Structures are given as structure tokens and as C-alpha cells.
């Protein structure tokens, strides 16, 4: 089941920037996680993120060393530049292109010469989740990231299985994200169901929710928690999870036929990213015009 319309509860729950994934306790244990081995239980989620369709998801850092402070998705190149889709909230306003560098597919450090923030983003993570988009223009093309991904141009995300990918901290459902669970700087991925689908209000109301997001809830394995969006009370798969902190700006994907498409940009979530919390993703489809204006070479798939 999915929920359309404006989720008034969003403004009642604390929102936090998102990072790498928080996963099911059961999967973490099965993958070798244990007390004293907290960082060893994420193998399945690292393998998922390493699948070739997600090669375009790259790490960002403010200092060129602390990779995973934020994430982004390479959209493609023009003759002189690469373009990277990310979240607007990772920048202080007014956004500066030198706020982050990007780690390329071969480990190279790439700099940006421009940053484009969505014109209706005002820094409010509660009321403008669906407008939390920015595009970095890098000062040279990217090679080795596979084919440029396709972005989704339809309206059929509700109730579908989605996969979110990014870098950053990690955790498990019973505790949320903690430093002990994080090791290395590889991307991780998790799955969920888009139980909540909220349409866009464009232009967004000045003091109300502008909509345009997907909500993914993390149930417990035993089904003991009620899903506030009317979806299942049990995880969609053993790879179910939530966004954590550092995944911000990474991407959420959906399979349409034989094609993997980007449906959203990882935005924020509730609480401490534990069982019973929700992660939110800014939908890209309604922003097709703005994205294409910044980077005319972007590819969209209509359904």
C-alpha cells in the first residue's frame, strides 16, 4: 500500500541528513557481524552496491581524504565537463563549487568549477525534501564509470522495490548508525519499498510541505512494528535497510523492465535510523526540466 498526498507527520518527526546504510540485525549477524566485529556484517550490502549498474555512484569529501561525507551520481559528460547529481542540503548557502571534491572511478580526485542548486531549494529539510537537489559540474570528464545512468521520468514509483546506494556511516536496526560499524570507504546499498509516495506542489507553498518524495520504512523481522504508511510490517528482503549519514546525495534506483533507473536523490530520514524509522528520497521525475537545462545530455526513461 502507498500513501499519496502531503504527509503532515513529516514536520513532526526530526529529520537528519543521510549516510551509508543501516541494515537488518539478522542479515548483519548472518554476514559475520558480532560484538567486537561490528564492521564485518555488511558484506551483502557491499556486494549489492558493487553491481555494475551502480558504478556511477561516487564519493564526495571536503578534504580529499574523508571519503563518504556525501555521495553523488555521475550523469554523464559534455565535451569538457562531467556532471554529478547530489543533494542540495550538503552545501551551506550560497553553495560554493569548492566545498567538495569527488573521488573518480580510478581513485582520482576531481574538482568542481560550478554548482547548480535547485532554484526552489531554501535549506529547509522538512518542507523542501522534494527539492533537495544540486548538480556539480566537474572541471573535466569522468571515464571508467560505465554508461551514464538513466533517470526515471514517470509516476509509477509507489509500492515498488527500490535500492538506495551511497557512502558514509553504517549501522543495524536495533542501534542505528554508530562509528564501530564503519570500516573503509566503499559504497553500500540496501533495499526497501516505496510505501509513501507524495506528489509535488510546484511552486512549493511558502510555509507548507512542497511534497515530491518517496518514503521507505524499516520494519522489524518479526513484524511487530506498524508501518505508518500502510505497507508491509515485515522487511521486503534480507537486504532491507535505511539511509544513514553520508549517503546524502547518493541515489535511489528502481528496475523498469530490463533497465535500472535513478528515481531519486537520498535526502533525509527520521529519528536515529533504527527499526521503525523512515528514509526519504527526493523524486527526480518532476525535475526533468531543470536537470536537462543544467545538463542537456542527461538521459530519462519514461514508463
Structure characterization notes:
The two termini are 20 Å apart. It is globular and about 50 Å long. The protein is mostly beta strands. The strands form 3 sheets. Strands 1, 9, 10, 13, 14, 15, 17, 18, 19 and 20 form a 10-stranded mixed sheet that branches. 7% of the residues lie in helices and 35% in strands. It contains 3 helices and 20 strands.
Q: What distance lies between the first and last C-alpha atoms, to the nearest angstrom?
A: 20 Å
Which parts are unreliable, with pLDDT below 50 for 5 consecutive residues or more?
1-19
| CATH architecture field | Beta Barrel
Q: Which secondary-structure class do the elements indicate?
A: mainly beta
Number of strands: 20
Estimated radius of gyration: 18 Å
The CATH fourth-level homologous superfamily: Trypsin-like serine proteases
* Most strands sheet: 10 strands, mixed
> What is the CATH domain class?
Mainly Beta
CATH topology: Thrombin, subunit H
Element layout with pairings:
Blueprint: E1 15-17, E2 19-23, H1 25-30, H2 43-49, E3 57-61, E4 70-77, E5 82-86, E6 101-103, E7 109-117, E8 134-138, E9 150-152, E10 161-166, E11 170-172, E12 176-178, E13 188-193, E14 196-200, E15 211-217, E16 241-244, E17 251-256, E18 259-270, E19 278-283, H3 288-294, E20 299-301
Parallel strand pairs: 2-11, 9-18, 9-20
Antiparallel strand pairs: 1-18, 2-16, 3-4, 3-6, 4-5, 5-8, 6-7, 7-8, 10-13, 10-17, 11-12, 14-15, 15-19, 17-18, 18-19
Amino acid at each position: 500500500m502507498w500513501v499519496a498526498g502531503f504527509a503532515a507527520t513529516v514536520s513532526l518527526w526530526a529529520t537528519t541528513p543521510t549516510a551509508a546504510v543501516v541494515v537488518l540485525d539478522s542479515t548483519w549477524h548472518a554476514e559475520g557481524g558480532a560484538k567486537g566485529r561490528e564492521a564485518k556484517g555488511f558484506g551483502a550490502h557491499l556486494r549489492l552496491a558493487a553491481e555494475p549498474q551502480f558504478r556511477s555512484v561516487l564519493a564526495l569529501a571536503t578534504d580529499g581524504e574523508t571519503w563518504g561525507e556525501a555521495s553523488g551520481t555521475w550523469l554523464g559528460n559534455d565535451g569538457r565537463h562531467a556532471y554529478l547529481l547530489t543533494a542540495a542540503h550538503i552545501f551551506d548557502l550560497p553553495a560554493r563549487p569548492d566545498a567538495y571534491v569527488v573521488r573518480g572511478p580510478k581513485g582520482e580526485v576531481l574538482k568542481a568549477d560550478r554548482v547548480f542548486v535547485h532554484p526552489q531549494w531554501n535549506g529547509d529539510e522538512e518542507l523542501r525534501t522534494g527539492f533537495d537537489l544540486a548538480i556539480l559540474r566537474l572541471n573535466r570528464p569522468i571515464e571508467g564509470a560505465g554508461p551514464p545512468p538513466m533517470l526515471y521520468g514517470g509516476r509509477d514509483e509507489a509500492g515498488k522495490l527500490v535500492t538506495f546506494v551511497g557512502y558514509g556511516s553504517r549501522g543495524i536496526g536495533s542501534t542505528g548508525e554508530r562509528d564501530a560499524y564503519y570500516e573503509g570507504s566503499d559504497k553500500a546499498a540496501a533495499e526497501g519499498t516505496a510505501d509513501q509516495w507524495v506528489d509535488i506542489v510546484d511552486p512549493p507553498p511558502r510555509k507548507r510541505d512542497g511534497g515530491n518524495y518517496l518514503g521507505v520504512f524499516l520494519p522489524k523481522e518479526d513484524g511487530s512494528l506498524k508501518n505508518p504508511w500502510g505497507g508491509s510490517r515485515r522487511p521486503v528482503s534480507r537486504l532491507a535497510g535505511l539511509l544513514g549519514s553520508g549517503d546524502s546525495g547518493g541515489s535511489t534506483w528502481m528496475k523498469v523492465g530490463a533497465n535500472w533507473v535513478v528515481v531519486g536523490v537520498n535526502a533525509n530520514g527520521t529519528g536515529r535510523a533504527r527499526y521503525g524509522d523512515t528514509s526519504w528520497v527526493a523524486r527526480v521525475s518532476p525535475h526533468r526540466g531543470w536537470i536537462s537545462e543544467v545538463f542537456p545530455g542527461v538521459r530519462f526513461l519514461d514508463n
